[in-house]
Design goal:
Layout lengths: L19 E9 L10 E8 L8 H11 L11 H12 L11 E5 L4 E6 L3 H19 L6 H13 L6 H13 L3 E4 L4 E4 L6 E4 L2 E2 L4 H8 L1 H10 L7 E4 L2 H11 L3 E5 L9 E4 L2 H14 L8 E5 L4 E8 L2 E9 L2 E3 L6 H9 L19 H9 L13 E3 L11 E4 L6 H11 L6 E8 L12 E7 L4 H4 L9 H7 L12 E4 L4 H14 L5 E5 L2 E4 L2 E3 L5 H9 L6 E5 L2 H6 L9 E5 L17 E6 L2 E6 L2 E6 L6 H9 L4
């Protein structure tokens, strides 16, 4: 790619005290002329207003935070800046954004940084810029505070949920296309007829009736009882008076939870008297969504540990024990101080990839401490364990312990028998039991509830124990290989409407039942039917790949579109280039190993496939279409 060289760098965004400047930003959602992935691209220059320190000085300070960078050599300030932005961009979450590129010119460099969420990546970029300037001026920055702000920005994005991100990362590893559908609020995996859409662990193949049934905890409980599985005694109430009556009838301790609830919100276990029941009932009411009726479950509280059994596609794949948060006394610190110290541990981070969140202090915690004759101001003797909650809510600081390998075969069969009754890809079954290594038939075992769309981070990153790769189990339900998620894609740098129709007709002769989508700068087509052309070029590509009937895509990407918008997708099965520019040649960069590349320069033809190259000259009046139509058969 050729750009005009800047001989005299002009300060654009830099302050007069800055040694560096960044400018000319572009964000691409997919591969572009600078990087083979979605990226933030910008120019970087030394301003010459303030002389920068030697590169070694920046590496020394940056290396205090990222020690592995000390062992690397950097050819220029731009290389160090790009590497630092890429490293900081992973945040403290281990994000999979590790690709970057740099193209150097006489007085500036163009840097490309892999990006998933534009606002977060821009924030990282400006943060690193401030860091470099602070180093130049021998000043400190509030690194941790700003990093937490960036993590919060990412977490609030559509990609920041722990389950969503885990699936996106796994899809990237497996080569499964995945992108967010903004208008629908869904993630799409795969292209065209190979697509699957969903929200977290809920997918379009799920039965919405079954999913809704799992939220009706009373009906679900009755159903499980009909199947012969153990469920606790209890009833549904809609007033405090009724709750008190049910509790007296089944005897304390009881558990109280909203019928319409999730993630343990509004749940109180081991309620031992009327005073506690009134508080628990109030918390359950507060957790009920506004559009839902007042319906609260009061049921017998079962003694034991809290477990989640997870099934994917009807098969048991993982089990986790969830323990309420606790602290250990040291003989001199208050419980509040112990909680503060615990929250400072590196393992407790409120990020989408952290195995433990920070312990939250609230009314339920204070009430439970009071039952133990304690308060947040109590000093606990050395080595005494103090449980802080009755409910093992991981979002409030609970601890997850992998139990997959300990599960008794009878309990696996139970989980799978339940899952077989629901047309749901993912199903979480919450149970109380002394342990999972004994059969449910022979010990005090009780099913609390079942959950559609269960979270998966606790299995993927338990606080204690081995990881279970649940995202792979989920995606392998739909795709054994990344290629299973794709449809054939043929990309041109220049194709007319007439040539598109000729190409479509050629393919339909071989596959008359196919639905073929095509887009060029002059139109959008599904087979021979013209569709509405959006001025935003990649929107046309998205609309076609979103079509659940699409068998194949034909797309034109000329130099101006590549430069201004980049591409929407990664990878082509065939690339056809007619007298390409240098930028258009980047279309050959992202092809698959078994793809075909056809290039015409003047009358000279080059065909590349699987490491073989065939070259020849077009005959007199021989059309180029004849060449690539013959080759299209190799990718169908």
């Amino acid at each position: 790619m050729v750009q005009d060289k800047i001989t005299n760098t002009v300060r654009i965004n830099a302050r007069k005290t800055d040694a560096f400047d960044i400018f000319k930003f572009k964000h691409y959602i997919g591969p572009n002329p600078y990087l083979d992935a979605g990226a933030l691209v910008f120019d970087f220059a030394v301003t010459e207003f303030t002389k920068p320190l030697p590169i070694e000085d920046y590496v020394s300070i940056i290396g205090d935070r990222y020690p592995h960078l000390r062992d690397q050599t950097f050819d220029s300030y731009a290389h160090l800046f790009a590497r630092t932005v890429s490293e900081v961009g992973k945040l403290d979450m281990g994000l999979h954004l590790d690709r970057w590129g740099i193209k150097s010119y006489e007085s500036y460099a163009t840097i490309s940084i892999q990006s998933l969420h534009e606002r977060t990546t821009r924030g990282v970029l400006y943060f690193v810029w401030d860091w470099f300037e602070a180093i130049t001026q021998h000043k400190d920055i509030t690194f941790e505070e700003q990093l937490l702000s960036l993590q919060s920005k990412f977490r609030q994005s559509v990609y920041g949920g722990p389950t969503v991100y885990a699936l996106l990362r796994t899809a990237d590893t497996k080569g499964i296309p995945a992108f967010y559908l903004w208008d629908e609020g869904l993630t799409q995996y795969g292209y065209g007829k190979k697509q699957v859409r969903g929200i977290a662990t809920t997918f379009d193949s799920d039965s919405h009736l079954d999913s809704d049934f799992t939220t009706r905890k009373d009906d679900c409980k009755a159903f499980l009882k009909t199947l012969g599985f153990p469920v606790p005694k209890g009833d549904i109430v809609n007033s405090e008076k009724q709750a008190l009556a049910v509790a007296r009838d089944i005897n304390y301790p009881v558990a109280v939870k909203p019928v319409a609830g999730h993630k343990g919100i509004g749940v109180t276990a081991e309620v031992r008297d009327e005073y506690e029941l009134k508080s628990a009932f109030r918390r359950a009411l507060e957790a009920i969504p506004e559009n839902e009726p007042t319906r609260v479950i009061v049921e017998k509280s079962i003694v034991g540990s809290d477990f989640r059994l997870l099934c994917v596609n009807g098969r048991f794949v993982a089990a986790i024990e969830r323990r309420p948060a606790w602290v250990v006394g040291d003989g001199k610190s208050t419980i509040q101080q112990l909680i503060r110290d615990e929250n400072r541990k590196p393992g407790r981070l409120d990020t989408p990839t952290s195995p433990m969140t920070k312990i939250q202090c609230d009314e339920a915690m204070e009430q439970y401490l009071e039952q133990q004759g304690l308060s947040l101001d109590s000093v606990v003797e050395k080595d005494r364990n103090v449980s802080l909650r009755k409910v093992a809510n991981l979002s409030a600081g609970g601890v997850s312990i992998d139990a997959t390998r300990t599960v008794h075969p009878d309990n696996i069969i139970l989980a799978q028998d339940i899952a077989q009754h629901f047309r749901l890809v993912c199903l979480g079954i919450d149970v109380i039991a002394p342990n999972l290594s004994e059969s449910w038939k022979s010990n005090d075992f009780s099913i609390l509830e079942i959950n559609a769309a269960p979270g998966i981070l606790m299995h993927l990153k338990p606080s204690i124990g081995e990881s279970v790769d649940v995202p792979s189990h989920i995606l392998e339900t739909f795709y054994q290989l990344g290629t299973d998620a794709r449809i054939p894609i043929v990309t041109f740098n220049n194709i007319s409407v007439q040539q598109i129709q000729e190409t479509i007709d050629h393919i339909l002769l071989q596959h008359p039942d196919w639905t073929i989508g095509a887009v060029c700068r002059d139109g959008v087509f599904i087979n021979r039917s013209a569709k509405i052309l959006s001025p935003d070029y990649n929107t046309n590509i998205l609309s076609l790949l979103r079509n659940p009937k699409l068998d194949m895509l034909i797309a034109e990407y000329k130099e101006d579109v590549l430069e201004n918008e980049g591409m929407f997708y990664y990878g082509s099965n065939m690339v056809v280039l007619n007298n390409p520019t240098e930028i258009e040649m980047t279309l050959t960069r992202d092809v698959f190993d078994d793809s075909t590349v056809v290039i015409k320069n003047g009358d000279n033809i080059s065909i590349r496939r699987k490491g073989l190259i065939e070259e020849y000259t077009l005959g007199v009046d021989e059309p180029f279409t004849r060449v690539y139509l013959k080759e299209i058969g190799t990718v169908l």
